[in-house]
Amino acid sequence: MPGLIQSVERATAVLHLLATRPEPVALSEIASALGLAKTTTHGLVRTLVAVGAVEQTADTAGYYLADDPLGARKDRWDVNEIRSRAMNWTDALAARTGMATQISVLRGREVRIVHDVLAAHGGGLVLRTGKSVPAHATAHGRIHLAFDVHLARELVAAGLPAVTHRTITDGADLARELATVRDSGWACGRGDLEADVATLAAPIRDQGGSVMAAVGLSGEIDEVCTRSGAPRPALLENLISAARSISRSMGHGQLQ
């Protein structure tokens, strides 16, 4: 059939094969069963392991389907590693922009700040390392929710409590906002968590492209946004550059 992508077909065939086997399967057996060269099979399996769909036995002799191959991988990432790799970039981002900067991870239905740098003038989001807030009530959270559809639906079903009068509390409004975040690659919150504070956030991705964390900057609304409410271009450019740099340090774009 024209238009099919061969590598996707082959990767799907590997997943189907492993799903039918109760025990780990050796690389040579996968190659033989699918009629592929061993080197080709090795590349496919390595990629599937990197993105979390397949796991490898401790002795590296066999491969098996992950418990939740299409699920969120947030619990597999080492927060300390994320923080240590991101620290230099967030410190530099704060210095370049004069804004407070943060790194966040998703924990349950909340966003937890794992690293923050105060603005030079002391303003910015009143979130400090270790504090958690509802995921729907901040730009950081909407970065995470935009790429975790199941969790977004859970939050809507459970209700979206207001933190300020600008917090998104309607499920349809949240869905539209998350679609915009997916399209643009960044999120902006204006007074939704702290009445006078705006926050910009962008995703940090792992080697396979999954969103593992978010980096953000915050300050007074008129410092972060223009009169029309749009993010100031220089701040957004610096934020996205930092997010890409941190992602590269986590292996994003380096699959072989």
From TrEMBL:
Domain IclR-ED: 61-252
Keyword Metal-binding applies: no
Domain HTH iclR-type: 5-67
Name of the protein described by the UniProt record: Transcriptional regulator, IclR family
Keywords: DNA-binding, Transcription, Transcription regulation
Organism superkingdom: Bacteria
Gene3D superfamilies attached to this UniProt entry: 3.30.450.40, Winged helix-like DNA-binding domain superfamily/Winged helix DNA-binding domain
UniProt entry tagged with the keyword Iron: no
